[in-house]
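Quick check before the chapter quiz. The format below is the same one you will see on the exam, so make sure you can read both the input and the output lines.
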Amino acid sequence: MALIDDFNAAVTRSKELTKRPSNEELLDLYALFKQATEGDVTGERPGGFDFKAIAKFDAWAARKGTGKEEAMQQYINLVANLQQNYA
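Here is the expected output.
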């Protein structure tokens, strides 16, 4: 259970950053969080002009096949790096 506790703590810490990470870093956070909590992306890729939804879908889809535990660890590591840069 330590990994889940560390993941939940990292989720909390990610919301406490004093500066906004780059869009790429935010997409990585989103994709890893979704992969860790829901698994592989499902559904159709958004179309039209909803560029934010398309970017989020593509970022999550790029993590396809990553195990939930591995995604949790990558998320924890990313938040630790972001804390060094944005805390």
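If your answer matched, good. The helical segments are 2-14, 23-38, 51-61, 68-86.
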